Amino acid sequence: MLDALPLNADAASKRAHYSAVFDSIKALLENESDWVAGMATVVCELHQSFGYYHWTGFYRVVRDQHLKIGPYQGTHGCIDIPLARGVCGAAARTGKTQLVPDVEAFPGHIACSSSTQSEIVVPVFNPQGELLAVFDVDSNDLAAFDEVDQEQLEEIMAYYGQRFPGMPRA
């Protein structure tokens, strides 16, 4: 596992670090067929590799209009999130990444942790374009995430959705 990249890393260092983490994820998942094991591995690799990732996890689409917590690392997360609320709900509803530099300024933000200052949430789709989950990262630092994080996480989540396209619903 790589050393954790600090928040103040430049864009080139950040891209290189994400590339190395992504290579590690692909190698670890090469012969894996279990979608939960896949989620747990992705979460672990990313959470441990970035110093500004304070909560990292998946919320799965399990029933209409709700997301259910999946594998994660960090403090407790919200167990069930209605699609009508929060940053995760917005990513699920719109099908677009939500890059939020200050969660206090996001209408309807759900405070699962009072220490969270910024957040990025990336939707995960299967090859048919169906929403499987959202990948959520919270930071205790304001404006921790940028366009490099967004572009790299979108690439990793696209890979995950292709690799594990048929996650069962609860």
Short description:
The protein is built from four helices and six strands. It has 170 residues and is α+β, with helices and mostly antiparallel strands. Helix 1 packs antiparallel against helix 2 (35-49).
Fill in the keyword field for this structure:
single chain, 170 residues, alpha+beta, Beta-Lactamase, 6-stranded antiparallel beta sheet, 4 helices, 6 strands, 24% strand, globular
Q: What do you see in this structure?
A:
This protein has 170 residues and is α+β, with helices and mostly antiparallel strands. The protein has a single domain, classed as Beta-Lactamase. It has a 6-stranded antiparallel beta sheet, sandwiched between helices. Helix 1 runs antiparallel to helix 2 and helix 1 runs parallel beside helix 4. It starts with 10 loop residues before the first helix and ends in a 7-residue tail after the last helix.
Helix and strand topology:
Blueprint: H1 11-29, H2 35-49, E1 55-63, E2 66-73, E3 80-82, H3 86-94, E4 98-100, E5 118-125, E6 131-139, H4 147-163
Helix pairs in contact: 1-2, 1-4
Poorly predicted sequence stretches spanning 5 or more consecutive residues: none
SS field, number of helical segments: 4
**Major sheet description:** 6 strands, antiparallel
The chain-level structural class is alpha+beta
Approximately what portion of the residues adopt beta-strand conformation?
15-25%
